[in-house]
Specification:
Layout lengths: L7 E10 L23 E4 L7 E6 L2 E10 L10 E6 H8 L3 E2 L4 E2 L6 E9 L36 H56 L8 H22 L27 H12 L4
Parallel strand pairs: 1-5, 2-4
Antiparallel strand pairs: 1-8, 3-4, 3-8, 6-7
Length: 284
Amino acid sequence: MSNETPIQHGEVNATYFWDDGSGINGDTGAPAGGEPMQKGLFSSPSWPLGTEGYIVYEGEEHEFFIGDRGPGEPSTDCDVLLDIDGKTFADMMGTSFDENSLTVGGGNGHAEVEYYITEWGDGNGTEGAPHPFQEPGNKCEDAVSPLPEEEPEEEPEEESAKETSDDDAEQAAEEEQEQAEEAAAAEGQDDGGEGGTTAETAANDLSGAELTGADGVMSGTGLLTLAIIPAILIALFFAWTRRPAGQHAGSADGEGNGLMAESNGRHSLGSGISALFDRLRGNK
């Protein structure tokens, strides 16, 4: 397809032909431009021979060059202003071209096409708006229209900048989330420390409350506790230092123990404590 910038654009009604000089089906002879009949050779009633361009039909492009003059009578009143070669016309219609009859299958001989001229030819003819065959004063101005505006292409740099901006926003969101998590963790640690200190303080306060009253004066329970503790310590000391002596200690039992024999339950508190310390010293 043509990559050149169009210099004229418009819409015209078109038909098809195939003039190869065979005389078949109204053939009027070889093309006037001197080129043999071929696919892509179109005919115009007025444009210069050698003019190049392309047509668009149902979204598909077909290149052409003006190589013949025509149509004749069909161009009257600006009706049919372009003749398309039979093979290109068959491709447009999705059908076949009959080489024997020089006709296009399907029965449709006309089509409305959009044309783009990319270069004027240097042969006989008139540039600009087409006119009917041999009617140069009857310009078909309606066959010419402004060139369609091309859609601007997106600049890659702008797209890249947008992607970078999106990445920065995502990274900022992740950093903000991390900071929030760290702050929450730090707050949890502070709460735990305060709770531990409070529990310890409460334990110390409770211990003090057992010995003193609300006014700080030693309570009765506290005094009794302080009186009992020395007595217990003295009893433990004598029990630890006591040694069995004399025959009153009793003869040894079956395991070789004397007074250290296991209690029968009738001993005093002192004897029980003494037996306990004898066990701790290794005596059974």
